[in-house]
Design a protein that fits this description.
There is one protein chain. This protein has about 290 residues and is of the alpha/beta class. It has one domain (about 5-285): TIM Barrel (Alpha-Beta Barrel), CATH 3.20.20.220. It contains ten helices and eight strands. The protein has an eight-stranded parallel barrel with strand order 1-2-3-4-5-6-7-8, surrounded by four helices. Helix 4 runs parallel beside helix 5 and helix 9 crosses helix 10. The two termini are about 20 Å apart. The relative contact order is 0.14.
């Protein structure tokens, strides 16, 4: 099923993101996570691409998950690949029954010797255009940045770039992580004013390990509200305590988002289940999710 067909119904859409593990032990742990989350009946899962795995890895994992009866969306990045390599992967996706692709530029490698492929793509918009021009029957999902892209903190310019992607053929936007809902709602308002009408899904990364999230937000430039940061700093060596605070914060975030009309929540699980399960159960008890 195409992911864009899931939105617009009477209930919000809940979805998860995983990544292909780098080791056999990691793969075993991931399958345990997926098994633990299956009872929550996510509408779909997306599989991100990591530098440790080949470009085909998200497709392979998405197919495994589809075999479990859960719809999958495979991430595709374009910063390292040629047009021919991308075309081969897209054709493989379609041939194997993948209907959804998350089209991203991807992180530029920090290796000073890295050289972009001469016939590759510079931006995600170029990849979206390529998918549409080639006529691949795919739902194309893209990223949105409520606090601005790490390389473009001008919020109006970020929206202009998103509008280009949508005009090129994007069907759904999933935001990057944020911890202040005001950032999400302001982002949606700017997008609607710019004429963007596709679903804008809230991407939530529950805090389960404060030093890890601190590193992630330092790299991405996302802000952690002072009140939340103070709580987590006091629990820096108390992982269980920090997880409890993170779950409480994310649960309140999600409840507020859904009550105010967000079309769905996309959980960045970091391949772990306890936090997502706890948040989901609280939302279900409040009647906010099915």
């Amino acid at each position: 099923m195409r992911v864009d067909a899931l939105y617009g119904g009477p209930r919000p859409v809940v979805s998860f993101e995983f990544f292909p593990p780098a080791t056999a032990d990691g793969e075993t742990a991931l399958m345990r996570t997926i098994d633990a989350l299956r009872p929550l009946a996510p509408a779909f899962v997306s599989i991100t691409r990591t530098g440790a795995k080949p470009r085909e890895a998200p497709v392979e994992l998405a197919l495994r998950i589809k075999g479990l009866g859960i719809e999958g969306a495979a991430h595709m990045t374009c910063v390292r690949d040629t047009r021919d390599e991308i075309a081969v992967l897209l054709e493989s996706m379609v041939a194997q029954g993948i209907e959804n692709v998350v089209a991203l530029r991807g992180d530029v490698p920090v290796d000073p010797g890295f050289v972009r492929p001469r016939d590759g793509f510079t931006y995600a918009t170029d990849l979206v255009t390529f998918i549409r021009d080639r006529g691949y029957p795919l739902c194309v999902i893209g990223a949105g940045h409520p606090e601005g892209h790490p390389e473009c903190r001008d919020l109006d310019r970020s929206i202009a770039h998103l509008k280009q992607k949508v005009d090129s053929g994007l069907d759904v936007v999933i935001t990057q992580l944020f911890y202040d809902n005001r950032d999400y709602f302001a982002f949606v308002e700017r997008a609607r004013r710019a004429g963007i009408t596709v679903p804008i899904v809230a991407g939530i990364m529950p805090i389960t390990n404060w030093p890890q999230i601190e590193r992630i937000t330092r790299l991405s430039g996302n802000q952690v509200p002072a009140k939340l940061r103070e709580h987590l700093e006091a629990l820096r060596t108390d992982e269980a305590g920090a997880m409890a605070v993170g779950i409480e914060w994310a649960t309140a975030q999600c409840a507020d988002l859904l009550r105010k009309g967000a079309p769905g929540i996309h959980f960045y699980t970091l391949n772990r289940s306890p936090a997502t399960r706890a948040i989901f159960e609280s939302l279900r008890n409040e009647g906010l999710v099915g």
